[in-house]
């Protein structure tokens, strides 16, 4: 059915690079690294953001057969299976209770991917990552707002409001708080969609990607995201449909404004692949070892081939911020293969 659909996306997208941005993004990255050190309190640092991992697991991403020509891009070029590592996380740089409102993350690492990669020094690595959060856009149009918010939030909940008003003024603060309050609740990490939220190249087009859960979407207690996922993985496999949403034009699907949700009526999602995490016990001895390894890995949208290059200022800011965080916490090198769970 999909095969007969005539799918095409516009190719006249463009990025707008400010002359001072490298310097600015370097500053943001060092600021995040300082917070990362502060949160470590002299111990081994976690990630600067998304510090708390819920579950690390392995699985496979199976590219759909009969994809329309336009969607056969990079790792989606042919129907085949990619082994993957997956890490679920909370967005904060602190390890806090799941009942505290936060962004939830899901990071995917495909292994065995050929082609030249984008991060200088890692061109020959064989990984392609996709990082997702549980909202289709961010409340922040630019990395400047994003980092200002992280900075205000780092002082703790009591000072957040005065800090936000001091930074953004009362009107923008109110708008931001409203947007944050409208973030969907996550009863279970296996029952909500996850979005790249920011665009990436998709061959000659531009796109956002998303993962939609397939199968029964049972809930759980919001306080126990890890326990919920562990028990669901123990009782059977979990699956997601990986879908792409193509750039239409700058007004409808902007590249540089990270706060705009690309409307599904103008830019519908098309399935590219199915992600499956097979039944597994991440608490077994080998599962625990694997989780430790996954927690030390570096998931980064810039672990990518040129055909899937991250786009927009927010993505370009991430390129520098992830590098600093990874150096500070001495992350594991890129894997060559996916370790299989015994049993
Ligand atoms: C909407 C856009 C974003 C998404 C979807 C996103 C997603 C994620 C996810 C899922 C992780 C955890 C990766 C893991 O499990 O290893 C992560 C980590 C991180 N994010 Fe983002 N993020 C976004 C924006 C940003 C921005 C704008 C910055 C900073 C300018 C940033 C800085 C970081 C840092 C420093 C880490 C830790 C990296 C590491 O040590 O491995 N993120 N992000």
**CATH class descriptor name:** Mainly Beta
Average per-residue pLDDT, rounded, comes to 94
Major β-sheet, in short? 9 strands, antiparallel
Compute the number of strand runs: 9
Beta-strand share of residues: 15-25%
Small-molecule components bound: protoporphyrin IX containing FE
CATH architecture: Beta Barrel
Described by the principal axes of the CA atoms, the overall outline is: globular
CATH fold name: Catalase HpII,  Chain A, domain 1
Short description:
This protein has 343 residues and is α+β, with helices and mostly antiparallel strands.
What does this structure look like?
With 343 residues, the chain is of the alpha+beta class. The chain has a single domain (2-328), classed as Catalase core domain (Catalase HpII,  Chain A, domain 1), CATH 2.40.180. It is 27% helix and 20% strand. It contains seven helices and nine strands; from the N terminus they run H-E-E-E-E-H-H-H-E-E-E-H-E-E-H-H. It has helices spanning 21-40, 143-153, 157-168, 170-181, 225-235, 285-296, 313-328; strands at residues 53-63, 81-90, 104-111, 127-133, 194-195, 200-202, 205-214, 238-246, 269-277. Strands 1, 2, 3, 4, 5, 6, 7, 8 and 9 form a nine-stranded antiparallel β-sheet that branches. A hairpin with a 2-residue loop joins strand 6 and strand 7. The chain is globular, with a radius of gyration of 19 Å. 39% of the residues are buried. The mean pLDDT is 94. Bound molecules: protoporphyrin IX containing FE (HEM). Protoporphyrin IX containing FE binds at residues 28, 32, 47-50, 87, 89, 105, 107, 131-133, 138, 143, 146-147, 196-198, 298-299, 314, 317-318, 321-322, 325-326, 329.
